[in-house]
Structure formats: structure tokens, C-alpha cells
Amino acid sequence: MYDGVGQATFEASLASLRPRGILVLYGQSSGPVPPFDLGRLSTLGSLSITRPTLAHFVTTPEELSRRASEVFGRVADGTLTVHIGGRYPLAEAGRAHEDLQARRTTGKLLLIP
User: Fold this and answer.
1) Are 84 and 105 in contact (CB under 8 A)?
2) Is the pTM of this model over 0.70?
3) For residue 80, what is the DSSP state?
4) What is the spatial distance between Cα 4 and Cα 33, in angstroms, rounded to a whole number?
5) Is 3 exposed, middle or buried (0-12, 13-18, 19+ CB in 10 A)?
6) What pLDDT is stored for residue 103 in this prediction?
7) pLDDT by residue (tens digit) across 59-86?
8) 62 and 102 share a domain?
9) Are residues 62 and 100 part of one domain?
10) Domain count, the chain
11) Domain that holds residue 32
């Protein structure tokens, strides 16, 4: 499970995992996850949690360039599809944020200058 929300979704994210599942907590837009008993991970099915940050996975400008080229290459050749969930004029950025917060969107949102 990939969870970029944090506090508000953490318990549901844990509950969604099968035994030996992994929770990747990569954000905390709703706030940090409060401390919890690590023993719960064993009782819920030998679960694992990781909290990655980009700085530990992309350590040099060359690595960033290589990885970005791989991603954009896959988008260009069609092996990776990016779902654009909405386009908003830059002047309506507030509406884009409201739609995102209200969960009226899916995919990526673009702000068009």
C-alpha cells in the first residue's frame, strides 16, 4: 500500500494489507502518523512499514537525470501511462486545490498558465 496522506489514512492503510504486506508511507498531507506499538505489525500479519525519502534514493544529479530519463522514456514509448484527471487555468488554482481536497479528482491535475 502506498500512502501519501499519513495520519488520516494510516489505520485504513494498515488494515488493507494482507499478511507480509508492506506499507510505504511517503507523505503526510493530513499530518504525521502518531507513535504506535510496533508489535501490532506482527499481530496484523508480519507487516512491514517503510518511510522513504527521495534524498536517499537519488543521491547525485547524474542519478536524478538517469532516473528521470527512464520515466519520461517510458511515458514516451507508452509503457507508462499518466492519467490526467483535470486541467485548470492557473487563475483557477484555488478551485483545483478545492477539488483535490474534496476528492473530486483522480490522476494528475495540471495547472495551465
Assistant:
1) no
2) no
3) S
4) 11
5) buried
6) 85
7) 999 999 999 999 999 999 999 999 999 9
8) yes
9) yes
10) 2
11) 2-50
Structure confidence by residue, pLDDT tens digits, 38-67: 999 999 999 999 999 988 989 999 999 999
Task: Tell whether 46 and 62 lie within a shared domain.
Answer: no
Residues 65 and 100 in one domain: yes
Say if residue 69 is in the same domain as residue 94. yes
> Which helix (H) or strand (E) is 40 found in, with range?
helix 40-43
> Tens digits of per-residue pLDDT, 2-30?
999 999 999 999 999 999 999 999 999 99
Provide the greatest CA pair distance for the chain.
50
The pLDDT, as a whole number, for residue 101 is: 86
User: 105 with 63, same domain?
Assistant: yes
Give helix then strand counts, H and E, for the chain: 5, 5
Cell 532516473 belongs to: 67
Distance CA 16, CA 62 (A): 37
Length of the chain measured in residues: 113
Pair 28, 69 in one domain: no
